[in-house]
Amino acid sequence: MPPLRKSAALCVFLLAALLTLCPQTATAQTTSSSLSGTVIDKAGPTVASAHITLKLPEKPDRETTSDANGRFSFPDLPPSTYTLSVAAEGLVTINTSGTIHPATAEQLPQIVLQVPDVDTAVEVTATTHDLAEAEIKVQEHQRIFGAIPNFYVSYDWHAAPLSSGQKLQLGWKTVLDPVNILINAGFAGIEQATNSYPGWSQNTSGYFKRFGAANGDVLCGTLLGGYLFPVIFHQDPRYFYMGKGTILHRTLYALSTALIARGDNGKWQPGYATILGDFGAGAVSNLYYPASSRQGATLTIENGFLSLASDGVGNVIQEFLLRHLTHNPPTYTPPNP
């Protein structure tokens, strides 16, 4: 073959080869893709330093972090499906997936991370003092026939013990109650009419002395038996309504409460507070009754025992009758609910 023809043939061959290779090269150059996006939080600001992980099938994971403006990018990606995981401290991780198409620069919609939902359970625990305070508020509305105070009875067998201050509060509420003062005024009038305590005259002065003595009896009995000794011996001065059981069982229980008391620790124990309160009130009354009517030691002791017996009988009446006569009685909580 002549040299000219050889050269022409060689040129044709090289040109054909070049045309064959060029499309492959162009395809290799244009099939790579990229994936980019921006990470923000729910409030709007971009999230810097978010950790982004790109997973491709049968390929090593690729990782990057978002820049100060929340942007990130993965260049030089082959056509493939993918899974993208976006995580940031204090925010909920998001996982998304999609497909990378050939020769595309895919811009993802903004990736919004949220603060995790936290179930916040606030447990409010009432203290023993708070529970007792609520009970006192209920007891201060307990009135026989809607008028006569009946404060020293609890219809909640499991009532919280009273603090020292609450025992004093209940005592003062009883002593200063207007209805109790009116009752004392009525008894003073009866004593005036029957000339009780003849050491006092039957004029106005004598009436007010009898009235003052009647209030003094309530004051001494309430503060000694309802406050001072209950505080010293850590006992509850209230009567705890049983409300269930046989008549005999309830009667024996009510009578026994003249001699036993519930301690602030919830246990039953000798009723030192009630016993000393009854005897102490009788002894103190000798300071303000007329000399001719004062009780000697023997009579004071006798009257102390009579007061204890009266307490027992009064508690029997409390157990079987007074709740039915109390206007809007509180909810009854039995010993074994």
Query: Which outline best applies?
Result: rod-shaped
The secondary-structure element order is HEEEEEEEEHEEEHHHEHEEHH
Task: List unreliable stretches of 5+ residues.
Answer: 1-29
Number of helices: 8
Structural class: alpha/beta
List the domain count as a whole number.
2
The quaternary state of the protein chains shown equals single chain
Instruction: List how many beta strands DSSP finds.
Output: 14
Q: What's the rounded overall pLDDT mean?
A: 85
Overview of the molecule:
The protein has helices spanning 3-30, 128-139, 164-175, 178-194, 204-233, 247-256, 272-284, 297-325; strands at residues 33-41, 51-55, 62-65, 71-77, 80-87, 94-100, 105-107, 111-113, 143-144, 148-149, 153-154, 239-240, 260-262, 268-270. The chain has 8 helices and 14 strands. It folds into 2 domains: 33-113, Immunoglobulins (Immunoglobulin-like), CATH 2.60.40.10; 128-325, no CATH class. With 337 residues, the chain is an alpha/beta fold. Mean pLDDT is 85; it is low at 1-29. It is rod-shaped, with a radius of gyration of 47 Å. Helix content is 45%, strand content 18%. Strands 1, 4, 7 and 8 form a 4-stranded mixed sheet that branches. Strands 3-2-5-6 form a 4-stranded antiparallel sheet, with no helix packed on it. Strands 9-10 form a two-stranded antiparallel sheet.
